[in-house]
Specification:
The complex is a heterodimer of chains A (about 700) and B (about 325). Chain A is built from 11 helices and 37 strands. Chain A has about 700 residues and is of the alpha/beta class. With about 325 residues, chain B is α/β, with parallel strands linked by helices. Chain B has 2 domains: about 240 residues, Rossmann fold, CATH 3.40.50.410; about 45 residues, no CATH class. Chain B contains 9 helices and 10 strands. The chains are: A alpha/beta (about 700), B alpha/beta (about 325). Chains A and B meet through strand 2 and helix 2 of A and strand 8, strand 9 and helix 8 of B. Strand 2 of chain A pairs parallel with strand 8 of chain B.
């Protein structure tokens, strides 16, 4: 005979309501209505005649009503008759350790209850059903196993621990958790069976790991699935990337999403792009099980921040139609469009005909299509107009084929760069090598020697024209332009003249691109807090056809953003729950405060470091980072905000099969699977039937009485 | 009668116009031919001097020569005297139960109606009006534990007012002493009469076959006609109470607390037995018995009660 247990033990208190009919009976007897009546003699006779049968019927009615309420209360508490245990398990065990899965997938909601709520109810029923002389412990299977209640006779502690588990957003390795629980059970001294009850959705992703090598002889693992039916199909957003692009109407956002579906038939799932809380676009994703798909939203921003932007930046969200597991159906991202980046272009060779102007192509590329907003505030000046004050407020300065500047302006330019600004120097026929080496030497990768045309090259093995090659594709400037090791938009650039570096000099910086003859084409040098890029050919068509190649526009835009320190702005910063997030620490900041989506704040001391690692990414959602200085008010670091995504493994609801459970069982341990449908006798349907029958009996008795 | 509405509680209020007009087309007739002396609308068993021919009779010495039918003598050569039906008036004795049980006016499910006594007063007043209207003598006897008011039947025009005053003044109280009252009424009647008993017949010895009605048998043997208007409230006929009810006796200290729905069936059985006893007793005594629920229209009650005897004849 199995043990009786309640899946919703708290509702068993409803049994108290069974006393209601009796109380009502007593009250109604005391509060009889008084009626002066004439035919009392007839009443007395009828009462004498029927007193016994009435009393019997009343008692029967009282009994039926009491049973009816008791049956309903019991049925709501969902009693089950636990299956008879296997041979050898009938005796009370020495210890029972309940391993409660609190991973993200336990937030799946079916019929109004989450898996975790079911697991808690089953755990409570299990704890209450154990005899008083059995030790009970509780382990929470979270990102790492947590001992929430060590094995003891203290039922209240175990129950409080179970009721206190609210579940997390992380991935739980049930194999590790089970091994941990088994070790906990084995640590109890004494003789007798040691039992581990794993309450989980038992999805395959949780038991995919190999079993622990730790010995677990004498331990019985009971794999208890919290739902009887098949798990519901699930779809999830696996990744969302937001980047700034230029569209026909100007600035735009490209939101690339990746989604997948598990179980069930192929369906079209609506996906919404929400900007500032409002739906901006919708896609239908044709999702079929086992195949991830990628799609993109394009949302024109008109160069302005999205509407309804809250303080600290706007929020962009992508939302799939909600299913039973909602945690992976929506990803919310922080997004902030920075103010326009001020770029000063010094045109060293202005021409009357626009297309012959040194900066015609550069200016066209940076101004954006149709002269629309591009996120860059461009100002073109001649070398004569440049003063020391010209660079005030500028983030990027471009010297295009500039012969020379006055000394004060050159010094201001270097200071501007040291302070964190960016400089792009392109050479040409106007370039005064001597002046450049002297005045701008600190910005240059190496001293310039002079220009050299291909015709002057004495190496016969080199073709007539030079191409660009040996790209540093991982460099931010070239990121996104590369396909493998090649840059399709730049690979066929033909250059016939370039600037030579002084041989024998010690370069200070990196070469990002080289000419096909091995000479540097694009080099970078860090200057103080700023950076300087040097293009060793002309930026117009005089020495090279770079300016008319498809890769020119994204290249110069990325260079401008990179030099302005804005290349990373407006792009997505994503981590998965449990992963570490790298945080940049601004100068002078003592500590960072990371505010989790739930509002929980964690303070991380900087101690002079330029970057910090934040590991407590245990919630799905947007994390806000605040910088705090000694005695100052905390300020939000908009660029440091990041989003934690659900671990995609938790989205896969495919149930584990018996083999997987057997493999997940610790070495030496016995195991068996249990579940309401297979092993436990569900008593509540019978109770509901009994209640229905009692309603009929009660109705019959009342009708007979009436 | 005045068109103005009578004041509530006044004697006239006992006799609503609707009731009077409803009954007015009816003629009150005694079931038996009363032997009165006053000319009226009732047929007498005696042959008298009315204009309505009854039969011829061979002359015998002593017969009134004024009634000799000379035309018959001329045709048949034998002496016949004409005999005519005599027209007499009757005495109507109204015996009204005013005991405490007659105060019941319903109340189950919040539905209150006219009390049994009020209904009895209305019916008695209507009958008195009818009697006076037809020149009959009318008297009333109001009883409870003992006879409280007794007015001997008189045919005077002002008798109606006297009867109505007596009816209006009486209030329900005390127990029931029907037998004694009927015996007293029988003693007072000097000639044949119509005795109308209006009562709920509770506490009249139902277990002993309603022995309290036995004096009606005496009255029948005296040649009187008798009618029992057995008045009951709808609650008493159906016991429509819900829940637990504490019933308190209107004529004593008895109390019964029951769950009304549970005793309803057996109560109705007892009631049926009680009504059967009343009907059978009335039949044994050769007395008319009519069950008169208080919520039935008075006109219908009186019309049906009097119709059964063929005493009423429509139109005038």
């Amino acid at each position: 005979m199995g043990a009786l247990a309640f899946l919703d033990g708290a509702l068993a208190w409803g049994l108290v309501a069974a006393a209601v009919p009796f109380v009502v009976h007593l009250i109604s007897k005391r509060r009889a209505r008084r009626v002066p009546f004439a035919a009392l003699e007839l009443l007395l006779k009828s009462q004498r005649r029927t007193a016994r049968s009435i009393r019997l019927r009343q008692l029967l009615l009282l009994l039926v009503r009491t049973l009816l309420i008791a049956a309903l209360a019991l049925a709501l508490a969902r009693p089950v008759l636990r299956a008879e245990q296997a041979e050898g398990q009938r005796a009370a065990p020495l210890v029972v350790v309940v391993a409660l899965d609190v991973s993200a997938s336990m937030q799946t909601r079916l019929d109004g209850r989450t898996h975790l709520e079911r697991a808690r109810a089953m755990a409570l029923a299990r704890v209450r059903a154990e005899a008083d002389d059995v030790r009970v412990g509780v382990v929470a299977c979270d990102r790492a196993p947590r001992d929430v209640s060590p094995p003891s006779f203290d039922r209240a502690a175990a129950i409080a621990a179970i009721e206190g588990e609210r579940g997390g957003h992380g991935f739980a390795d049930l194999v590790a958790c089970t091994a941990h629980a088994a070790a906990l059970a084995r640590a109890v001294e004494g003789d007798g069976e040691r039992r581990v009850v794993v309450l989980s959705d038992l999805a395959a992703h949780g038991v995919g790991g190999s079993a622990s090598a730790a010995e677990a002889a004498g331990v019985t693992i009971e794999w208890a699935r919290v739902i009887d039916e098949e798990p519901p199909p699930n779809h999830a957003l696996l990744d969302v990337q937001v980047r700034r692009t230029s569209g026909r109407s100007g600035e735009a956002l490209q939101v690339a999403i990746s989604a997948e579906r598990w179980l069930g038939p192929a369906v079209d799932v609506p996906a919404d792009l929400l900007v500032g809380g409002r739906r901006a676009a919708r896609l239908a994703l044709p999702l079929s099980p086992g195949r991830a798909i990628e799609r993109s939203f394009h949302h024109a921003t008109g160069g302005d921040a999205p509407e309804s932007a809250p303080a600290g930046g706007a929020r962009i969200a992508v939302s799939l139609e909600h299913d039973a597991f909602e945690l992976d159906d929506q990803v919310e991202l922080p997004f902030e469009l920075p103010p326009p980046l001020k770029v000063i272009v010094v045109d060293g060779a202005p021409q009357a005909l626009p297309f012959q102007d040194e900066v015609f192509y550069l200016e066209t590329a940076l101004r954006g299509a149709n002269g629309g907003p591009s996120g860059l505030a461009l100002e073109v000046v001649g070398p004569d107009q440049v003063r020391a004050s010209t660079f005030a407020g500028a983030r990027v300065v471009v010297l295009a084929n500039v012969a020379r500047l006055d000394d004060a302006a050159a010094a201001a330019l270097i200071e501007h760069t040291r302070a964190g600004g960016g400089v792009l120097v392109s050479v040409g026929d106007q370039t005064d090598v001597e002046w450049a080496n002297r005045a701008l030497g600190e910005l240059l990768y190496a001293p310039l020697r002079g220009s050299k045309g291909q015709a002057l090259l004495d190496d016969a093995s080199v073709a007539d024209v030079l191409t660009l090659t040996r790209f540093r594709t991982e460099h931010p400037v070239l990121r996104g332009l590369a396909q493998g090791e090649e840059l399709p938009g730049l690979g066929r650039v033909r250059t016939h003249t370039f600037m030579l570096m002084e041989p024998g000099s010690t370069p200070a910086g990196d070469v990002l691109v080289r000419f096909s003859n091995g000479a540097p084409a694009l080099v970078e040098r860090d200057v103080g807090d700023g950076r300087a890029l040097l293009l060793l050919t002309s930026i117009d068509r005089d020495w090279s056809d770079l300016a008319i190649r498809p890769g020119f526009l994204p290249l110069v835009r990325q260079i401008a953003l990179y030099l302005g320190g804005a290349l990373d702005d407006g792009t997505t910063r994503l981590v998965h729950v449990g992963e570490r997030a790298m945080l940049r620490v601004p100068r002078g900041v003592d500590e960072l405060v990371v505010r989790a989506p739930s509002g929980r704040e964690t303070t991380v001391r900087a101690d002079g470091a330029a970057t910090l690692t934040f590991a407590d990414t245990d919630e799905v959602g947007i994390y806000t980072v605040l910088a705090r200085t000694e005695g100052g008010e905390p300020r939000v670091l908009g660029a440091e905000r990041f989003t934690a995504l659900l671990d995609a493994r938790e989205s896969d609801p495919t149930p584990a099969d018996a083999d997987a459970l057997a493999r997940a069982t610790p070495t030496g341990a016995r195991s068996h699977a249990s579940g309401g449908r297979d092993d436990d006798l569900q008593l509540w349907p019978f109770l509901f039937l009994a209640a229905a029958a009692l309603v009929l009996v009660e109705g019959g008795l009342v009708r007979r009485s009436a | 009668m005045s068109d103005a509405a009578p004041a509530a509680g006044s004697p006239a209020a006992l006799l609503p116009a609707a009731t009077v007009y409803g009954i007015a087309p009816l003629e009150l007739r005694a079931r038996v031919v009363a032997d009165g002396v006053l000319a009226g609308g009732h047929r007498s068993k005696r042959f008298g001097s009315s204009s309505e021919f009854a039969e011829h009779k061979l002359y015998a010495p002593g017969d009134d020569l004024r009634r000799l039918d000379w035309r018959a003598f001329a045709r048949l050569d034998r002496y016949f005297v004409r005999r005519h039906l005599d027209e007499t008036t009757i005495e109507v004795a109204l015996v009204v139960d005013t005991s405490g049980s007659m105060a019941y006016a319903g109340g189950a499910r919040g539905r209150y109606s006219t009390s049994k006594l009020e209904a009895a007063k209305t019916w008695a007043a209507a009958l008195a009006w009818l009697a006076v209207h037809h020149g009959d003598a009318v008297g009333v006897s109001l009883f409870a534990g003992a006879e409280r008011v007794q007015l001997a039947p008189r045919a005077r025009r002002d008798q109606l007012g006297v009867v109505l005053d007596a009816l209006a003044a009486v209030q329900p109280s005390g127990s029931t002493a029907l037998a004694e009252t009927l015996e007293a009424v029988a003693e007072r009647l000097t000639r044949r009469a119509l005795v109308v008993v209006i009562s709920d017949l509770f506490d009249c010895g139902a277990d002993e076959g309603l022995r309290a009605l036995e004096p009606l048998g005496v009255l029948r043997r005296m040649g009187c006609d008798a009618l029992i208007l057995h008045t009951l409230d709808r609650d008493e006929l159906e016991l429509p109470f819900d829940g637990v009810v504490r019933f308190e006796d209107l004529e004593g200290d008895r109390v019964v607390q029951v769950e009304a729905p549970l005793v309803r069936d057996s109560y109705l059985e007892e009631l049926r037995a009680f009504l059967d006893t009343a009907r059978l007793t009335a039949a044994r005594l050769d007395v008319r018995w009519h069950l008169a629920p208080t919520d039935d229209p008075p006109v219908r009650v009186l019309a049906e009660a009097l119709h059964g005897t063929a005493l009423l004849r429509g139109g005038r």
